[in-house]
TrEMBL record:
<dbReference type="InterPro" id="IPR010987">
    <property type="entry name" value="Glutathione-S-Trfase_C-like"/>
</dbReference>
<feature type="domain" description="GST C-terminal">
    <location>
        <begin position="96"/>
        <end position="233"/>
    </location>
</feature>
<dbReference type="InterPro" id="IPR036282">
    <property type="entry name" value="Glutathione-S-Trfase_C_sf"/>
</dbReference>
<dbReference type="Pfam" id="PF00043">
    <property type="entry name" value="GST_C"/>
</dbReference>
<dbReference type="GO" id="GO:0006749">
    <property type="term" value="P:glutathione metabolic process"/>
</dbReference>
<dbReference type="InterPro" id="IPR004046">
    <property type="entry name" value="GST_C"/>
</dbReference>
<dbReference type="GO" id="GO:0005737">
    <property type="term" value="C:cytoplasm"/>
</dbReference>
<feature type="domain" description="GST N-terminal">
    <location>
        <begin position="7"/>
        <end position="88"/>
    </location>
</feature>
<comment type="similarity">
    <text>Belongs to the GST superfamily. Tau family.</text>
</comment>
<protein>
    <recommendedName>
        <fullName>glutathione transferase</fullName>
        <ecNumber>2.5.1.18</ecNumber>
    </recommendedName>
</protein>
<dbReference type="Pfam" id="PF02798">
    <property type="entry name" value="GST_N"/>
</dbReference>
<keyword id="KW-0808">Transferase</keyword>
<dbReference type="GO" id="GO:0004364">
    <property type="term" value="F:glutathione transferase activity"/>
</dbReference>
<dbReference type="InterPro" id="IPR045073">
    <property type="entry name" value="Omega/Tau-like"/>
</dbReference>
<dbReference type="InterPro" id="IPR004045">
    <property type="entry name" value="Glutathione_S-Trfase_N"/>
</dbReference>
<dbReference type="InterPro" id="IPR040079">
    <property type="entry name" value="Glutathione_S-Trfase"/>
</dbReference>
<dbReference type="InterPro" id="IPR036249">
    <property type="entry name" value="Thioredoxin-like_sf"/>
</dbReference>
Length: 241
């Protein structure tokens, strides 16, 4: 499948990754078609194409545009917005340099503070570690709530009346928000701590371009249970040797 105008687009990824979902959202909102290449085993058997395309980190997502690989999800989203004009859907980043810088700042904050601490909470080995990671996560949520209020200026999205760069960046986390609640009983955004972001999650997830690519939460939960069961079985087998 081509991205339009003879432009060939391939996406290396895996359906469970919020970073891959982020790129899929950008492609969906820009109205671009692409070849979706799923990496089946990122732990033990990465494809030769992935290793050639991202030899430094060897991770997904990787977008290959006319044979040229682009790595790291936020950089890919920015590339998509720059490489494909507004004729391919709305512009995600503002034209004004300061507004673009602000969007990039908060995009980095989402990954470096919010997502990083949420991952730490999910991987914590003790209740104390989990509690501390969740404390940092919810502090980041409150900071982002205030940022949304200022950036959106009362409009429905970070991008104003339409979806923008930060909506795409945070949008990749929407399945993780619902997954955390379903799997662990942790509600990342709620009406007390972050009513604006709670409403934003529902609003964003209801958009057709988002629904087209967001993974099903129940499938994510079942996939997680299967992985944990498999890991426990392997650990038990190793321990019995």
């Amino acid at each position: 499948m081509a991205g339009g105008g003879g432009q060939e687009l391939k996406l290396l990824g895996t359906w469970t990754s919020p970073f891959v979902t982020r790129v899929k959202l950008a492609l969906s909102f820009k109205g671009l078609s692409y070849e979706n290449l799923e990496e089946e085993d990122l732990y033990h058997n990465k494809s030769e194409l992935l290793l050639r395309s991202n030899p430094v980190h060897r991770q997904v997502p990787v977008l290959i545009h006319n044979g040229n690989p682009i790595c790291e999800s936020q950089l890919i989203v920015q590339y998509i917005d720059e490489a494909f004009s507004s004729a391919n859907g709305p512009s995600l980043l503002a034209a004004e340099p300061y507004e673009r810088a602000v969007a990039r700042f908060w995009g980095a904050y989402i990954d470096d503070k919010l997502l990083a601490s949420a991952f730490q909470a999910g991987r914590a080995k003790t209740e104390e570690e989990k509690a501390e990671a969740l404390k940092r996560t919810f502090a980041a949520v409150e900071t982002l709530e205030a940022a949304f209020e200022g950036i959106s200026d009362g409009k429905p999205f970070f991008g104003g009346d339409s979806v923008g760069y930060l909506d795409i960046v945070l949008g990749g986390l929407v399945p993780m928000v619902y997954y955390g609640e379903a799997r662990h009983g942790i509600k990342l955004f709620d009406g007390t701590r972050s009513p604006l972001l709670e409403a934003w999650v529902e609003r964003f997830g209801a958009l057709d371009a988002a629904k087209a690519v967001l993974p099903d939460v129940h499938e994510l939960v079942e996939h997680s249970k299967m992985k944990r069961a498999r890991a426990a079985a392997m650990a038990a087998a190793t321990g019995s040797d």
